[in-house]
């Protein structure tokens, strides 16, 4: 694996290997007072966030630090981007300064792909931490890790992805990965919040949440992404919440074992009621913890696993 740009790049074996590595790292660190492995000593990871983030940026930083990498955070505001430098020049500068891996979040769909292209000669790995409305592969991996912990293997499980599918990179990455892992996906959204080409995704689509709930093993609620909306996509927040919000009555319609996921940040009272978000059925903080281990696994496979193979070949 040279980069992680899209969950479409992962076949079932590659995805399972990453999830297994994440689970092993989690077990290794569990209960340890000092959470520090030497794995990435001497490696430099630069996070480059052009869009706001709490969970993703922090968990990449924690992941790198727990494996002893040097982690440097660059934000668009405090860098030369504010002086008009292009994404390409910024990336080449970071590579020249010694970055082994660039973790990028950018409002433009396809930005991570471009970056990987520009950095292809430098040997710098690129991880897509969310590019516009396109993909967010590590989020889908941490969601899968959480579902595996709660439900066991994902093959044959049915997952509902509910809400603003149109603007959601989380939905896209999850649709690909869940299907690769053998799960069934159903998208639930008002017609205005579904992408034009949704038929090509070959997943069932429903405009109504209630009839779907009893058959779901997990429900993934999406944030309504107001920052990407120009115009009215639904009549009012109240009407959206009545039709698509996961409230306590709807929680009771799910099977006993069903898991509630949300990538965060949550809009409590809009797509999810507070009582549901805080219930033991919700795995929202577990998702965040798993995010650290999944990102450790990704950095490990990009920066250390290959090097170990090369070392083994050299010594043989
Ligand atoms: C998501 C994102 O940024 O795409 N958040 C995250 O990374 N946990 C979802 C969102 O912003 O709604």
TrEMBL record:
Keywords: Pyrimidine biosynthesis, Transferase. It catalyses: carbamoyl phosphate + L-aspartate = N-carbamoyl-L-aspartate + phosphate + H(+). Residues 2-149 form the Aspartate/ornithine carbamoyltransferase carbamoyl-P binding domain. Belongs to the aspartate/ornithine carbamoyltransferase superfamily. ATCase family. GO terms for biological process: 'de novo' pyrimidine nucleobase biosynthetic process; 'de novo' UMP biosynthetic process; amino acid metabolic process. Carbamoyl phosphate binds at residues 55-56, 105, 136, 139, 264-265. One of its GO terms (molecular function) is aspartate carbamoyltransferase activity. PANTHER family: ASPARTATE CARBAMOYLTRANSFERASE (PTHR45753:SF6), ORNITHINE CARBAMOYLTRANSFERASE, MITOCHONDRIAL (PTHR45753). Pathway: Pyrimidine metabolism; UMP biosynthesis via de novo pathway; (S)-dihydroorotate from bicarbonate: step 2/3. L-aspartate binds at residues 83, 169, 223. This is Aspartate carbamoyltransferase. Catalyzes the condensation of carbamoyl phosphate and aspartate to form carbamoyl aspartate and inorganic phosphate, the committed step in the de novo pyrimidine nucleotide biosynthesis pathway. InterPro entries: Asp/Orn_carbamoyltranf_P-bd (IPR006132), Asp/Orn_carbamoylTrfase (IPR006130), Asp/Orn_carbamoylTrfase_sf (IPR036901), Asp_carbamoyltransf (IPR002082), Asp_carbamoyltransf_Asp/Orn-bd (IPR006131). Residues 156-302 form the Aspartate/ornithine carbamoyltransferase Asp/Orn-binding domain. It comes from the Bacteria. The gene is pyrB. It comes from Streptoalloteichus hindustanus. Heterododecamer (2C3:3R2) of six catalytic PyrB chains organized as two trimers (C3), and six regulatory PyrI chains organized as three dimers (R2). Its EC number is 2.1.3.2. It holds the Pfam family OTCace.
